[in-house]
């Protein structure tokens, strides 16, 4: 057995053998709640609602117009997706969307989505999207990096009509700290969003060893969708700035920062000048593996200065979300809490919600 394989097995065993804990109630900062309730929310027709769907899935709704991020419900077991570590172990099994679970867990309002944003190509961000886009959110376009598009072209329905439902955002169009990226608009002009060049934290890290699950890009259109977890490649990781637009489509009424993987700073930071134009109302962060990159998420939060924070992708996504919810093997609750406390003012609330929790937000100042 090669030495790095032995190390990987030791890391996996170390992390997987921790005793499970069940989370019955959302963890939150305490002093103030995230979102608004009742009359605090102002005109109920103008409320921005954000439902945490589990993993990196969000359902954002404003004036009945819907945008989705990386919906994923199939949650195959770790045994089905773990990397092949030695020739002695059998190869990674085939995985596929659990369409019954999707139908049970994806809210009906998702059918009105005009856009689905995805940050990278791993199976837990992309595998359920073909079913959802074809059977449910049939008017949606899917946005991601070039590898995301190349993999989705493996689906014959998405490939039809020139594959126009899947939009590849090139690295040149994505923003970075010192470079403004391109704004994309949904077909109903209810939202605009900018991709941000990001990274992806190592999947495992212990002592001096780290391991990243299925890195690499896909550079040509596939003939069929990937069949194993290892075939859903990382691709080009992006975070997004998402602006909810006013009903006349001229002003931003709410700004969301969304990441579906923690990045090594300053990757994933929005352009300084775009942040100066309008503050971030809500930051949605990835909890899993955030302690595998230094100063994360505190350095990002110091730049974003969000008014409120939701920590997503924290729960164990190797088990169905219909079972009691446990933290993911890669989520270090103590370190995450410490990082949030270090970077956020006491007046800024954060929450680690249970899947299927909806938060309501009042529109903020129009800019
Ligand atoms: Zn990933």
Report on this structure.
By secondary structure, the protein is an alpha/beta fold. Helices cover about 20% and strands about 20% of the residues. The chain has one domain: Ribonuclease Z/Hydroxyacylglutathione hydrolase-like (Metallo-beta-lactamase, Chain A, 4-Layer Sandwich), CATH 3.60.15.10. The chain has helices at about 5-15, 80, 100-105, 125, 130-135, 145-150, 155-160, 270-275, 300-305, 335-345, and strands at about 25-30, 50-55, 55-60, 65-70, 115, 140-145, 165-170, 185, 190-195, 205, 210, 240-245, 250-260, 280-285, 310, 350, 355-360. α9 (about 300-305) packs parallel to α10. The structure holds zinc ion (ZN). Zinc ion binds near residues 120, 122, 200 and 261. Zinc ion binds near residues 120, 122 and 200.
Major sheet details = 8 strands, mixed
The mean pLDDT is: 90
Distance between the termini: 59 Å
Beta-strand residue percentage: 15-25%
Helix content range: 10-25%
> Uncertain spans, ≥5 residues at pLDDT below 50?
none
Strands in their spatial order, largest beta sheet: 1-16-15-14-13-12-9-8
Radius of gyration: 19 Å
Q: Which overall shape is indicated by the principal axes computed on the Cα atoms?
A: globular
Q: Compounds present?
A: zinc ion
CATH class: Alpha Beta
CATH architecture classification name: 4-Layer Sandwich
